[in-house]
Design a protein that fits this description.
Number of strands of chain B: 11
Order of helices and strands of chain A: EEEEEEEEEEE
Largest interface: A-B, 30 and 31 residues
Number of strands of chain A: 11
Shape of chain B: globular
Number of helices of chain B: 0
Helix content of chain B: under 10%
Oligomer: heterodimer
Structural class of chain A: mainly beta
Order of helices and strands of chain B: EEEEEEEEEEE
Strand content of chain A: over 45%
Shape of chain A: globular
Radius of gyration of chain A: 14 Å
Radius of gyration of chain B: 14 Å
Helix content of chain A: under 10%
Chain lengths: 118, 115
């Protein structure tokens, strides 16, 4: 079965550069979540999208932006990179189901993109 | 391979009732176990976190237990409310060789509370 695809899997950048991470959700999934996991930390929620619209915002820095495209893939754009941005970035996808209409909302996580800022 | 399995996949209960969600894991070396509550399309909210030496942790009407020997955890919700309707995700972290945490996410239990 198809899973969530993230690219690239590894990325090395220098300070003040920009980076773009991509997430391809499972087919027919319409919701995408982005998480950041710093060294020695638990994953932190950054932002989510449903049907190409931002649905929730977490601890995403102003230097970062994200969007979801018509094919439901999502990109996380990171500018003016800082050393502290070095982390593992997870993407997850799900198929939106209002809880009162359906009994299951499963979230699938991708393998992550490891970003290293030098 | 590290794995986290949750059961049931979905659960429907009446408002005011109690319920228990299960999480079984094979994650090594174990660092900590978290339960998250996540509304559809929104970010997860951490309910509890437990390390190896802790076997119970409460947060209001939520009580999590951990049995490190059997590698099982449960989340008990008391006197459920309509606002408890959400997905509950169990996340177990392992300690990597470099000292970082590698999380393994469960697939979640979808809870619906009916009036």
């Amino acid at each position: 079965a198809a899973g969530v695809i993230q690219s690239p899997r590894h990325l090395i950048k220098e300070k003040r550069e920009t980076a773009t991470l991509k997430c391809y959700p499972i087919p027919r999934h319409d919701t995408v979540y982005w998480y950041q996991q710093g060294p020695g930390q638990d994953p932190q929620f950054l932002i989510s999208f449903y049907e190409k619209m931002q649905s929730d915002k977490g601890s995403i820095p102003d230097r970062f932006s994200a969007q979801q495209f018509s094919d439901y893939h999502s990109e996380l754009n990171m500018s003016s990179l800082e050393l502290g941005d070095s982390a593992l970035y997870f993407c997850a996808s799900s198929s939106y189901r209002p809880l009162r209409e359906s009994s299951y909302n499963e979230q699938f996580f991708g393998p992550g993109t490891r970003l290293t800022v030098l | 391979k590290n794995q986290v399995e949750q059961s049931p996949q979905s659960l429907i209960i009446l408002e005011g009732k109690n319920c228990t969600l299960q999480c079984n894991y094979t994650v090594s070396p174990f660092s900590n176990l978290r339960w998250y509550k996540q509304d559809t399309g929104r970010g997860p909210v951490s309910l509890t976190i437990m390390t190896f030496s802790e076997n119970t942790k409460s947060n209001g009407r939520y009580t999590a237990t951990l049995d490190a020997d059997t590698k099982q955890s449960s989340l008990h919700i008391t006197a459920s409310q309509l606002s408890d309707s959400a997905s509950y995700i169990c996340v177990v972290s392992a300690i990597a060789s470099g000292g970082s945490y590698i999380p393994t996410f469960g697939r979640g239990t979808s809870l619906i509370v009916h009036p």
